[in-house]
Amino acid sequence: MSAKVLERFPAGAPRGSWPAEEYAAARRAAGEPATVVMDLKSDAFLVVVEGHEEDGRV
Question: Largest Cα–Cα distance of the chain, in whole Å?
């Protein structure tokens, strides 16, 4: 299964994961099942939607 990354937020930001959580909440309010995950390799919080292929197929 793959995931589409909607947005990236640096983990070292002063507000931590809050910007990513706020963005994901706004996407969920718009009907998109967005979640926040931590990418340790890039040290960033990613807002993702599960199950989307790169070309848009589910």
Answer: 36
Q: Tokens standing for 21?
A: 């959580």
pTM above 0.85, yes or no: no
Query: What CA–CA distance (Å, rounded) separates 13 from 25?
Result: 19
pLDDT digits (tens, 9 = 90+) for 32-45: 999 999 999 999 99
Boundaries of every domain in the chain: 3-50
What is the DSSP code string of 1-33? --EEEEEEEETTSTTTTHHHHHHHHHHHHTT--
CB atoms < 10 A from the CB of 20, how many? Answer: 26
CA distance 21 to 8: 11
